[in-house]
Specification:
Blueprint (H helix, E strand, L loop, with lengths): L1 H31 L14 H14 L8 H20 L8 H6 L4 H32 L1 H6 L2 H22 L5 H12 L12 H14 L7 H12 L3 H6 L18
Length: 258
Amino acid sequence: MDFARSLLDWLPYLTAAVFVFGLARRIGRWSRAKAPAAPLFPLPDTRRRAVVRLAAEICLLRGRAAGTVPSRLAAWLFHASLVLLLVGHIRTVTDFPGLWAALALTPATVDRLAAVAGGAAGLLALGSALALAVRRAVVPGLRDITGLEDVFVLALLVAVIGSGLAMRLGPAVDLAPVRAYLTDLARLRPRPMPEVPGFALHFLLAQALVAAIPFGKLLHLAGVFPAKAGVTRDPARDRDGAGPLWTAPPAASAPRRP
């Protein structure tokens, strides 16, 4: 029993180690991968336009152009709601009383706004995740390529979002013990988790999700950058560093007369 409690106390550090090791291993594989030059057309002609194009593909999910409008909308809402939830979770670590005072917001008002915004983002994330899961189950082409990893990832995401949403929509949660616990973890002072309703389940599920990120498809956001660099790599730039960022496709030669 004491060993199990000690393991739970140190589990966040083990999760962080697994995440860092897995991420470093994946980045190392990306850096060693040799991709042949595969310039695409049309290509941006300046570095600024290249960055803008990459940002548009990431923020607007333009790479999913082959999907239907409802599926692209569900994917965009899911990713946007996850970003909102991550931003909202900053208040579980620290608060910003100076900012609220500058905005003339009382702590009670901030808590009400956080409850509404967090609940809405959680419902949006849960609904869009379920929509993506249903889509994988009913669309024949997607159902055929869906493996156990996809099912596990979707189930884990739904469990993490659902457990957090239950905390948000359930009885009021006192964040002070949670902040104190996370602060002690950051200071390398492990201790038992606070007895806050629903926190232990949500935190353990979140750790499982974090540990799984480097080893599966959940790392696709970070993989966008080396993938785009690989298919647009300029051999001249790789050789002497002086070539353009984007390589234009070669002009088609005129057909020869017989």
